[in-house]
Structure prediction request, 126 residues.
Amino acid sequence: MTEADPVVMKLRQRLLADRKRIEEELRTLIESESSESAGESMGELSMYDNHPADMATETFEREKNEALIKNAETILKRIDMALESMERGTYGICRECKERISSERLEALPYAVTCMACQERSERKT
Prediction:
């Protein structure tokens, strides 16, 4: 697939839109994280005043937010890699077997770097 390919151009537009959306989500998550941290520093003077269940909820929410941030950053990196491979003319080629990745797979996951067979093989190993 070349960048002039209409399917690739459509997927490129989708990747760019996804990138913008995820960047906005990431910015919101980071702002939320920093505002919660600021709120915590201005809150109770002693953690002993808080109920253990409240502390557990706060810990869970903080860890969930951190996981969402990490996931968004990972997806952004994959999107950037896909956009770079489009520019190099290597988009849609499996990094494992060097065969073409099906258009159905790319439509479902435009930043996929492996074909279904190699992905399944990789998942079975782990």
The helical segments are 6-42, 52-88, 103-108, 116-125. The first helix runs from residue 6 to 42.
